[in-house]
Every structure is written in C-alpha cells, then in structure tokens.
Specification:
Number of strands: 12
Distance between the termini: 42 Å
Order of helices and strands: EHEEEEEHEHEEHEHEEH
Mean pLDDT: 97
Number of helices: 6
Strand content: 15-25%
Low-confidence stretches: none
Structural class: alpha/beta
Shape: globular
Length: 274
C-alpha cells in the first residue's frame, strides 16, 4: 500500500504562535522536531497496518521543514516551494490513501490555533459548494480528481470537524483543543504521537472500505477577500467571476483544474496583499 502525506505545521501539538513555525522564530527548530515526530508517527502507524511506500510533501511555508534522513519508513521527501499543485504535489492515482498531518482550521471558521486559508493577509473565507472549507477541504479536490480517499487528518478539533463534510468517516487524530487563534490545550508530545500512530493504523486498516472525497461536481469555490482590490485582481484569471465587492467564485467540472485555478488566485493576490 502506498500513502501520500501532506504535512503542514500549525496543527502540531504545542504550536500556537507564528514565531514557532517561521524560520526566523526562536522556537522554529524545536517545533520542526515536534512536527517531524508527528509525521513519523503517522508513517509508523500506517506501516503497522501494512503500508509500505510513502511520499511526504512538505507543505508548510518554504516547504523545507523536515529532515529527510529522519523520516520513518524510508519515505520519499518532496520539498521546495515552487510546486504547481502546492500542498498536493506528487499525488496521483497510484496512491491508496492520503494523510493530512498537522493541519489547521480555516480563516473564517471556529477558533483554531493559527487559523488561515492559504494566505491570511488576503483571504477571509472560502466555501466549497456552499460549505465553509479550510485547506483540508480545498486540498481534497486533488484527491477527488485522482479518486484517492483522504483517510487521516491530524490537528485540533476544529480542523477535524471542518473536513468531515468533504471526507465523511475520515479518521481524526485530535492532538489539541484550541482556546483561540493563539492559544490551545495540547496533549503531551508523546501522547500526541500515540494518538496519531493509532489513528493512522486504523485509517489504513479501513482503506478497503474508504471512498474518495464526497464533493459533488461540477464544484464551486467561493472566495471572500479582505479588501475589494484583491477581489478585482482575482477576476483577471479565466473563469473567476465577481460575486460582490469582496467575493469571487469559480466553478469547474474538473476537480484538479478547479484546485489549480484557486492556487493561481492565491499566488496572484499574494503580491498585492503583502
């Protein structure tokens, strides 16, 4: 069995501040170690259930946060920040399942530590077919395009709840409960890894019954920006239409093409937002 792992960082137990997950931060190295162990726990749990091949797509910030020599399972390591399919680069139909490790809640949702949706300076909220979606729900479009089930997510409770409408029955390893956007009650790192390891094992054992994401096609992404200039710029992209002063929408029957259009919107508006 072959597992694709997309790893972020903000959902790691103990991580609650931007300083902890940016290279300039004083705690960044330590928190990279915490993330590395959670990624390894997911791989180890999957191996215990029979998975034998792994690709880890480092998907946080500059996308070079892990040490490849310390990855469990002799996993392949996809790193670097220029990826056409961004957090989902490397996934194809040859994989049996997808893991989302150390994910976080959406910008427009319930309190979640370090919540954002791709770019907190530009995007105020995203809806997928009318349902609030974070990065997990949006990224599930690529899994749908390849007909691969998303079977594990790790992070806080809000994150686990947000993906459920798109991936019903997904195994969730809840390693912290958010108090606010900058505070959370986290499990001890060793306990967090145990929770992840067991959830990953169960997710792989249940793969024969797992289905691709439950997202109706054609699908529509509705994107609300923090100001009108960003919304206007987004309409420069083909198929993106203005809904109101702050909001645009884009629809497509091709799930992967829809995701690529969204990523183009993110990258284009990032320049003016920053």
């Amino acid at each position: 069995m072959k597992i694709f792992v997309s790893s972020d960082m903000e959902g790691t137990a103990g991580v609650v501040d931007w300083d902890q997950c940016r290279p300039s931060g004083s705690q960044y190295g330590y928190c990279c170690d915490l993330l590395q162990e959670e990624v390894n726990a997911a791989i180890e749990g999957a191996m215990a259930a029979g998975a034998s091949e792994f690709l880890v797509n480092d998907s946080h910030s500059a996308m070079a946060n892990l040490r490849p020599d310390r990855l469990a399972g002799r996993a392949r390591y996809l790193s670097g920040r220029h990826k056409p399919l961004y957090m989902m680069q490397g996934l194809d139909a040859s994989f049996d399942g997808v893991f989302f490790v150390s994910y976080h809640g959406s910008m427009g949702g319930a309190p979640s530590a370090l919540s954002h949706t791709y770019n907190p300076r530009a995007i105020a909220g995203v809806w997928l077919n009318g349902t609030p979606a974070g990065e997990s729900g949006i990224n599930a479009l690529v899994a749908l395009g390849h007909r691969v089930p998303v079977v594990l997510i790790t992070g806080d409770r809000t994150t686990a709840e947000e993906i459920e409408p798109f991936c019903p029955g997904i195994r969730a390893a809840v390693v912290k409960t958010s108090v606010s956007r900058f505070a959370a009650d986290s499990l001890h790192p060793e306990e967090a890894r145990e929770v992840i390891r067991e959830a990953a094992r169960e997710a792989v054992l249940r793969l024969p019954d797992a289905a691709p994401p439950a997202i109706d096609l054609p699908a529509t992404l509705t994107i609300r920006f923090r100001n009108a200039d960003l919304a206007e710029m987004a309409t420069w992209i083909n198929r993106v239409e203005r809904a109101d002063e702050l909001t645009v929408r884009v629809s497509d029957e091709d799930a992967i093409r829809l995701y690529r259009t969204f990523i183009t919107v993110v990258l284009l508006t990032r320049g003016i937002a920053e």
